[in-house]
Amino acid sequence: MFRFANIELLWLLLTVPVLVMGYTLLVVHKRKQLARLGDPDLVARLMPNASKVRPHLKFALQMMALTMLILAAARPQYGVREETVTREGVEAVITLDISNSMLAEDVSGQTSRLDASKQMLAQLMDKMVDDKVGLVVYAGDAFVQLPITCDYVSAKMFLSNIKPDLIQTQGTAIGKALQTSIYAFGDKESAAGRAIILLTDGENFEDDAVQMAEKADKAGIKVIVVGIGSTDGSPIPVPGTTDYMKDREGQTVISRLNEDMCREIAQAGNGIYVHYDSSNLALKAIRKELDKLGKEQLEAHVFREYNEQYPSFVVIALLLLVIDFFVFNRKNKSLTRLNIFKEKRA
């Protein structure tokens, strides 16, 4: 498979036709100026060392060298290199609430609950080394956004693209989210410690989340609950407007963090409850809880890395520039004196 790592730099190739157009206009302009001087044959005799081909050749070499350098900067890659490694760690499924209530801006610094959750999870993934991580998102429904993997780069990419409109069914079904998270671990048994990291504002209107947390505990999965938001509550902004969501009576909806529900879920899941307030305390508590879990040597993982091809393009560019250096705009006087093909006069 062939690809460019910095494909956006290929836009620089548009400079090549622009330069070609400018050079063409310059050549036409020079020819018009020479035509004004008089008879073309006479003008050519007055400039015996002038070459019609060499300037064009030099320009072509320069443009090809520029093209090669741009392609090299875009980092062409081809093929893969495989490396098999083993990891010793735990398995964690991050379960993130993306309901509309997570848009409330009541986290320190007037940050939305969803943005604060994503920031904290990105920091958590930065601390992971040998663990596996999966991602489940939920609102009125739940689904696996990313299966359990050691690829933290992909995990953070999926995390950054999470928005409430990923799930059309609004609401907050924590029980279904926990059930989906349990299934995300798969049927294969593992000696590695397993945990569900549930990020929520505790508003649950759909099902029995405590019962599902108990089911997770029976399956050997610890439930760590992270409360997002404030108990005082905050209105929920309507995306794309300056208005706030209202109920059927036209009253502004105030969403509050339900810490009692969060604690019940954590207790049923044999885990802990922590409140996130933009400090590192919640992050440290989660990491400490994960470190308590038993670790095992996880399955061998295959990393695939593309082989860089840009050195070849750089070498070609340098060769073209070297050739350009030895090509002069004018004819070589020594070479023009050579009379190889003409017959000698008696």
What brief labels describe this structure?
three-stranded antiparallel beta sheet; elongated; alpha/beta; six-stranded mixed beta sheet; 346 residues; Rossmann fold
Short description:
The protein has 346 residues and is an alpha/beta fold. The protein has eleven helices and eleven strands.
Write the layout of secondary structure elements.
Blueprint: E1 2-4, H1 15-37, H2 40-46, H3 54-73, E2 76-89, E3 91-97, H4 113-127, E4 132-138, E5 142-149, H5 152-160, H6 174-184, E6 194-200, H7 209-218, E7 221-228, E8 234-235, E9 254-255, H8 259-268, E10 273-276, H9 281-292, E11 296-308, H10 310-326, H11 333-337
Parallel strand pairs: 3-4, 3-6, 6-7, 7-10
Antiparallel strand pairs: 1-2, 2-11, 4-5, 8-9
Helix pairs in contact: 1-3, 3-10, 4-5, 6-7, 7-8
Structure description:
The chain has 346 residues and is of the alpha/beta class. The termini are far apart. It is built from eleven helices and eleven strands. The longest helix has 23 residues, at 15-37. Strand 3 (91-97), helix 4 (113-127) and strand 4 (132-138) form a beta-alpha-beta unit. It has a six-stranded mixed beta sheet, sandwiched between helices. A three-stranded antiparallel beta sheet has the order 1-2-11, with helices on one face. A two-stranded antiparallel sheet has the order 8-9. The model has no long low-confidence stretch (mean pLDDT 83).
Which strand order do you get reading across the main beta sheet?
Answer: 5-4-3-6-7-10
The CATH topology of the largest domain: Rossmann fold
User: Could you give the order of the helices and strands?
Assistant: EHHHEEHEEHHEHEEEHEHEHH
What is the CATH-assigned architecture of the largest domain? 3-Layer(aba) Sandwich
